Amino acid sequence: MTTKTAPQPSATLVNGFDTQAIGQIVGALSNDRTLAKFQFRASNQWVGGGENHSSVQGFYGAGAEDRSRRQPFTLVNDEPPLLLGNNEGPNPGEYVLHALAGCVTTTTVMHAAARGIHVKSVSTELSGDIDLQGLLDLDPSVAPGYQQITVKMDIEADCTDEALDELLEFVYRHSPVCDTLCRPVPVTIERVRRS
Amino acid sequence: MTTKTAPQPSATLVNGFDTQAIGQIVGALSNDRTLAKFQFRASNQWVGGGENHSSVQGFYGAGAEDRSRRQPFTLVNDEPPLLLGNNEGPNPGEYVLHALAGCVTTTTVMHAAARGIHVKSVSTELSGDIDLQGLLDLDPSVAPGYQQITVKMDIEADCTDEALDELLEFVYRHSPVCDTLCRPVPVTIERVRRS
Fold first, then answer.
1. Is B21 domain-assigned?
2. Contact: A98, B136; criterion CB under 8 Å
């Protein structure tokens, strides 16, 4: 978390992160573990067919509501014509891949910064295999979701290949979205009436 | 999948879906189960710090590469200042909630259409709890990803509450993104060198 302290002359940017700020976050959380509890949120409205829009703005973290976003982000889900949509946006399965790509990338460059590894570039290619027999209830033995997801990462940095491989193994175990996909997460769907 | 047949005069739009087209998809997949195999994709480029951009365009499905998107969709991940970013976009964890909202909504209105339930409105509120001690490697007993995700859905339709509850129970078990989160999905991160 950022603090209200003015930047120190000795502050060092590595991979776009202020490594002093990373150290301050780790120090603050070590002193008060409740600051690490975050809650992210989205609200979504159906438009019609496969199109729906989400609004993302506030979240809770570091012991308070965050107010840094003056306007909400609007995100558009749709389906391609093959799946009866109009291509107004990517579909939800594609957004999962985008989320995973971003989380793996940020976890990589942040932990690289903490290790003093200067990253020059990161690009990833993701693919996810899915069998729509699950969604369409055609075969109860077919899972509706992704069967497997592959991330291919091209990364250039000022360290050995061994250090990169060790970093990526760490990232696999510590990326929040990677963990969310690899581990069964309890999801609850509850019907409510808005007042 | 859509076919090249002209729309039939008796085609009926329910919840924005052509129910004849849904029937044709189910019929085609029942005849050739390999048509149900899809592969979705995303490519991502690190910009700096917590910012990175994905490009989403092609996918494989129904036995062929889809070419329906003339331009790629560009999606922006960033982090809020509290997490050392500049709020250029939602963060990856928020995109996961958007993906889940969209998938649950589309699965609901599509299967409602197949059941002849006319949906008037759907809105959802999602929240996901996460403890950053996992990401920051402060406590190995804390999972890095979401501890739990809650979807609250307000839905209006021309059916009984019991029929809606039964539909949502079905959706919970058949939404691809919900299943992807609830079930452990194998994720592979592989380091490659682009030529």
1. yes
2. no
- CA dist A122 to A168, B75, B86, B111, B149, Å? 12, 16, 19, 40, 30
* Three-class DSSP category at B16: coil
| Element holding B179 (H helix, E strand) | helix B176-182
**What's the pTM value of the predicted model, to 2 decimals?**
0.94
Average of pLDDT values for B120-145? 97
Flag whether pLDDT at A173 surpasses 90: yes
Q: Say whether A33 and B139 touch across the interface (CB within 8 A).
A: yes
If asked whether residues A63 and A94 sit together in one domain, one would say no
Q: Which residues of A touch B183 (CB under 8 A)?
A: 143, 145, 184
Measuring CA to CA, which residue among A152, A168, A144, A38 is closest to residue A93? Answer: A144
Our count of domains for chain B comes to 2
Question: Within this chain, do residues A131 and A103 fall inside the same structural domain, yes or no?
Answer: yes
Question: Closest residue of B to A140, CA-based?
Answer: B174
- Give CA–CA dist B106/A91, Å, rounded: 10
Model pLDDT for residues A24-43, shown as the tens digit of each residue: 999 999 999 999 999 999 99
